[in-house]
Design goal:
There is one protein chain. By secondary structure, the protein is mainly alpha-helical. Helix content is 58%, strand content 3%. The chain has a 3-stranded antiparallel beta sheet with strand order 1-2-3. A hairpin with a 2-residue loop joins β2 and β3. α5 crosses α11. It starts with 12 loop residues before the first strand and ends in a 13-residue tail after the last helix.
């Protein structure tokens, strides 16, 4: 008779009287001693972050937790209105809306910066060098008629307040790496190419910061969704006390009007 398969994991495992997580005794070494942000970083990398890395990582989570009545927040409230028995459905609805326009920019920017750096060869050692690389990068995007991820914001047109603060925190912790260096250089030089000044948005700087922390690029959107989960729980908590979901629904339902069909033509 063959031996049963063995599935190895360094994450959670349970025995009759003990639970281990990342090689630690969950009850005695983790609970009450490790913050949730630190634990999330540790779970993703299987190495315990330094205090500075934890501070930058948790600043990113705070920056992405909630940004008002975005589509993700609205759909969460409306799903709860439709199915108040399904908190998980309301949360899932909001998280599923994390894409290229909302939340997904964090991943898009981190990947974009990483691709530029990977193809750049020797990296710059001063601001002038970073500006040269940034100019080339923005020009290439412009010639391809593509947007630069992390550049521009539909509300914070004069500057996203999250961006300078996160850069400040990363600098204080000595964690400004090549992704943040390139991103800030793009912020300095892009008007020369685009003919206008756009803000470096918070989602983009978060992606650059996460990439500089050495977190897997494939998981960057996951960290944005982790942060937004807390925000959506807040949206639901407020909806319980001060509901607006029904008003949003009725604003559309009572103000629609029938029109003639508009046939699709390929």
């Amino acid at each position: 008779m063959s031996e049963p398969p063995v599935y190895e994991t360094a994450l959670g495992a349970s025995s009759l009287d003990k639970i281990t997580l990342l090689g630690q005794d969950l009850a005695h070494d983790v609970m009450g001693k490790v913050g949730f942000g630190e634990l999330a970083f540790w779970l993703a990398t299987q190495r315990r972050p330094t205090p500075g890395e934890t501070r930058v990582f948790e600043a990113v989570l705070a920056a992405l937790a909630d940004h008002g009545f975005t589509p993700t927040a609205i759909v969460t409230r409306l799903t709860y209105l439709s199915a108040p028995d399904s908190i998980q459905g309301a949360l899932a609805a909001g998280l599923l809306g994390g894409g290229s326009r909302f939340l997904g920019v964090t991943e898009d920017c981190g990947r974009f910066l990483h691709e530029v750096l990977a193809s750049a060869g020797d990296l710059p050692t001063d601001d002038a060098g970073w500006d040269t690389l940034a100019l080339e990068t923005v020009r290439t995007k412009r010639e391809a008629r593509e947007f630069v991820p992390g550049l521009g914001h539909h509300v914070h047109k004069q500057g996203d307040p999250r961006t300078p603060r996160l850069l400040e925190i990363a600098a204080e912790e000595g964690l400004v790496g090549p992704h943040l260096a390139l991103f800030t250089a793009i912020g300095r030089v892009h008007p020369q190419v685009l003919g206008k000044t756009l803000p470096l948005n918070g989602a983009g700087v978060c992606g650059a910061a996460l990439a500089d922390l050495g977190l897997p690029l494939e998981l960057l959107r996951g960290f944005a969704l982790l942060a937004r989960t807390a925000g959506l729980i807040g949206q639901l908590a407020e909806e319980l006390r001060h509901p607006v979901g029904n008003d949003i629904f009725l604003a559309v339902d009572l103000n629609n009007r029938p029109v003639e069909p508009d046939p699709y033509t390929p």
